[in-house]
Amino acid sequence: MFNVQDIRKDFPILSRKVNGKPLAYFDNAATSQTPQQVIDAIVDYYANYNANIHRGVHTLSQEATDLYEQARQKIQAHFNAKFSHEIILTSGATHSINLVANGFSSLLKKGDDIIVSALEHHSNIVPWQMLCERTGANLKVIPMNEDGELVMSVFDNLLSKNTKLVFLNHISNALGTINPIEYVIEKAHQVGSAVLVDGAQACPHIKPDVQALDVDFYVASAHKMCGPTGVGMLYGKEAWLNKLPPYQGGGEMIAEVTFEKTTYADLPHKFEAGTPNIAGGIVFGAAIDYMNNIGFDAIAAYEKELLDYATQKLLAIDGLKIYGTSKNKTSVISFNLENIHPYDVGTILDKLGIAVRTGHHCAQPIMDYYGIPGTIRASLAFYNTKEEIDTLVEGVKKAKMMLS
Amino acid sequence: MTIEDIQNEIIDEFSMFDDWEERYQYMIDLGKELPLIDEQYKTENNIIKGCQSKVWVHAEMTDDKIAFTADSDAIITKGIIAILIRAFSNQHPKDIIDADTSFIDKIGLKEHLSPTRANGLVSMVKQLKMYAIAYQTQLN
Ligand SMILES: Cc1ncc(COP(=O)(O)O)c(C=O)c1O
């Protein structure tokens, strides 16, 4: 049974005070908090297994390698990838996207189209703009509507035989919209285009099945799923990963090196040059275990309850407007108070121990669409409570009073 | 009054407050009274980088003294600027260049002094001093 009070005991940071007040942490979309089980896994690795992997003859190195590869298998199982070598361990979603964008440099030519959504994080815009500059390909944009949903009829018209790649996020970090990726993948495949889905914001809330989705690339960051920072993954279909050239050169990624020619290692090592974040990879596995033990169905049901509660309470505040009003959304509430700058509200909330994010959330095109400098974003996680939401609502009211 | 005198005066004013709420409310009220910048100076060029909110600053020198006017789209930021401008405006460029800013710490706004905080107070101080340096070279 899902019991939020029991779950909160797993997270030492949730009992800390900020500015003399109990912390109410609502910046989960930026980074999630870390349960003791995951902290213990970090300590366990450094206390008992620390060694370099894939190269040692000695026992420690072998044990560390086994743990690292077991983590890869856990990630494979979690995302239901067909093979564990389809999981590339990276430093995070940004690294994963850059790896694919770089690989596509050699596959695209002038006149090809790549399609992006208007709801993207800068991490899923800039690498592709750079790719277009290098190759002469065109960048086309699926627009959004007032509710913060993608306009699929325009997407249908953007697709053509020139489309080589479509990339969009599964869930928008700024608004929480769940995008219709199943539809996008099916339509894109009909014209022979590949699809990359940025799952950075989806993975804390749902458990994607990459085979059922038939997605070509899927990326995630561990630090948004109760794991450590600086580690993440790229899922790619075997055929695609074989087609892409390596990203970085170095140790680990080679089979043989002579000065005449180097042959690259097989997947996944071809894309994992240098000593990786070994502890991070292993602990990513522990974080996935932690979340699965709670269960994604239970998480989704509880977060929906929190979202509905918070939405209703916040909307009762006069002059408060929520951005991102799709029926298909996760527990992210982006809002503003009329005639008040989001930064001011965030500053007052911080004084009250309430952590939110303010600004453009690395999604400037969305803010431009609404004609606003930014929003206040409260992103809720399964360890938040209704009492904390009450604190947030009271805090927003107080900020409004002080700032008007 | 010298910059130091004004800073001490501000420290005195803030010492009357018991908690953050009163301090912030005062700062917000100061923000509302900030001598506004003339619309013509609210240009891209006059925007200070490194702030989450927009901040414009304009400087003019008459009789060897610099007058600053400014604005921001965020009211707390405006309050901080108002405090800075009160301390630095109508002063000789050399005195502005040499001025110390630790009074911000003493009035309980230390959290705004962090160079990584997105309110740009540090960039703001730097910008005021840059203006002073520029005008100082005109005097030399
Ligand atoms: C949708 C989305 N994509 C990509 C990223 C980048 O993730 P990371 O900084 O972990 O690489 C984020 C992080 O905020 C995100 O929300």
Short recap of the structure:
The complex is a heterodimer of chains A (404) and B (140). Chain A has 404 residues and is of the alpha/beta class.
Can you offer a commentary on this structure?
The complex is a heterodimer of chains A (404) and B (140). With 404 residues, chain A is an alpha/beta fold. Chain A is 40% helix and 17% strand. Chain A is built from 14 helices and 17 strands. Chain A has helices at 4-9, 36-48, 59-79, 93-104, 126-135, 152-158, 181-190, 210-213, 238-243, 278-294, 296-315, 342-351, 364-370, 386-403, and strands spanning 17-18, 21-22, 24-25, 87-90, 113-117, 138-142, 163-169, 194-198, 217-221, 232-236, 254-257, 262-264, 320-323, 332-337, 354-355, 357-359, 375-379. In chain A, helix 2 runs antiparallel to helix 10 (278-294) and helix 12 (342-351) crosses helix 14 (386-403). The longest helix of chain A has 21 residues, at 59-79. Chain A is globular. The mean pLDDT of chain A is 95. Chain B has a two-stranded antiparallel ribbon with strand order 1-2. In chain B, helix 1 (3-15) crosses helix 3, helix 2 (20-33) packs across helix 3 (75-88) and helix 3 (75-88) runs parallel beside helix 6. The longest helix of chain B has 19 residues, at 121-139. Chain B is mainly α. Chain B contains six helices and two strands, in the order ααββαααα. The two termini of chain B are 24 Å apart. At the A-B interface, helix 12 of A face helix 2 and helix 3 of B. The structure holds pyridoxal-5'-phosphate. Residues 92-94, 121, 123-124, 169, 173, 198, 200-201, 221, 223, 232 of chain A line the site of pyridoxal-5'-phosphate. Chain B: Residues 12-130 form the Fe-S metabolism associated domain. Chain B: InterPro entries: Fe-S_metab-assoc_dom (IPR003808).
